[in-house]
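step=encode ok
step=design start
structure_in=
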């Protein structure tokens, strides 16, 4: 953890000065000579692995996205017995995002779910309200992401269970995220993501609301390929965390993902490894109980395909 903090701090500490950064961006991104021009493509997709990016869908474009997580590669549930996780699917999400404007999109999704709360339906929106410019008059890009998720799973009879829903509103959870990103040069982008999660109903003794901080980056290694990574640090109430871990006999872990991004025309593929079993923010932020150190990481992939509904070719 300390290494991570140090890495983040160093990333900002070694960031070029505004004047130098302006020169670097103009030289390396080769955007032309106009000042105050917006820096394009801080990221290539609306998500990295587990977290959001500042990217939005263009006006009247439709983004169809499939996310998949397999079972454990190693550990007690992995190995050749389930072909290193490929015989299992911990979570699957299918979603559509539509661009109302170039900076505002709305979306819907259906996910299997990877905790006791399954059969998830999500509605979301993202608004990019600030864009980085080549002359550093605006040094950052910023976007706000909000989502609401409802579970359709049958309510549990055990009143202490996390799915012992008493009414419709108990099934709802909400996520609010501010995504702050900077493209340091043509190859390197980084994002910070303060997050607030609220679950209307949790198991007995757990907390309904918590804050988290996400980190993510993209390093381009060729014209079509880039390394991507992200990490999210939830700030849980200590005594409540200890209580739930004791009851469940499972520890909570922070979600860490690393992967390879491949761009092929209108498609963006992500081949990922992550210890998070769930895909929805409402679940992997607060309820990741699998560890890299125990071999409880998995293959995952994301496929994003965009369609222009305005007649323009992507």
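sequence_out=
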């Amino acid at each position: 953890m300390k290494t991570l903090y140090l890495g983040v701090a160093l990333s900002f500490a070694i960031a070029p000065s505004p004047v130098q950064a302006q020169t670097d961006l103009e030289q390396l991104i080769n955007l032309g000579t106009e000042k105050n021009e917006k820096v394009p493509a801080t990221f290539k997709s609306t998500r990295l692995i587990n977290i959001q990016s500042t990217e939005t869908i263009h006006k009247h474009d439709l983004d169809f996205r499939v996310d998949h997580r397999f079972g454990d590669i190693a550990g007690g549930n992995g190995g050749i017995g389930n072909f290193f996780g490929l015989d299992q699917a911990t979570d699957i999400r299918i979603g559509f995002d539509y661009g109302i404007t170039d900076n505002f999109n709305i979306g819907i999704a259906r996910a299997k779910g990877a905790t006791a709360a399954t059969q998830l339906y999500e509605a979301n929106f993202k608004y990019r309200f600030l864009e980085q410019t080549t002359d550093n008059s605006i040094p950052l890009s910023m976007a706000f992401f909000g989502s609401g998720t409802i579970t359709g799973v049958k309510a549990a009879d055990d009143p202490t269970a996390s799915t012992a829903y008493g009414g419709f509103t108990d099934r709802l959870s909400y996520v609010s995220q501010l995504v702050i990103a900077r493209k340091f040069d043509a190859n390197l982008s980084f994002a910070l993501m303060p997050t607030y999660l609220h679950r209307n109903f949790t198991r007995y003794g757990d907390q309904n609301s918590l804050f988290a901080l996400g980190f993510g980056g993209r390093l381009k290694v060729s014209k079509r390929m880039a390394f991507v990574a992200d990490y999210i640090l939830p700030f849980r109430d200590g005594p409540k965390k200890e209580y739930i871990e004791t009851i469940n006999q499972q520890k909570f872990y922070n979600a860490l993902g690393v992967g390879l991004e491949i761009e092929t025309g209108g498609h963006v593929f992500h081949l990922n490894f992550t210890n998070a079993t769930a895909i929805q923010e409402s679940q992997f932020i607060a309820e990741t109980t699998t560890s890299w150190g125990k071999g409880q990481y998995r293959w995952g992939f994301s496929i994003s395909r965009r369609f222009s509904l305005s007649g323009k070719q992507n």
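step=design ok
step=annotate ok -> Residues 1-23 have pLDDT under 50 and may be disordered.
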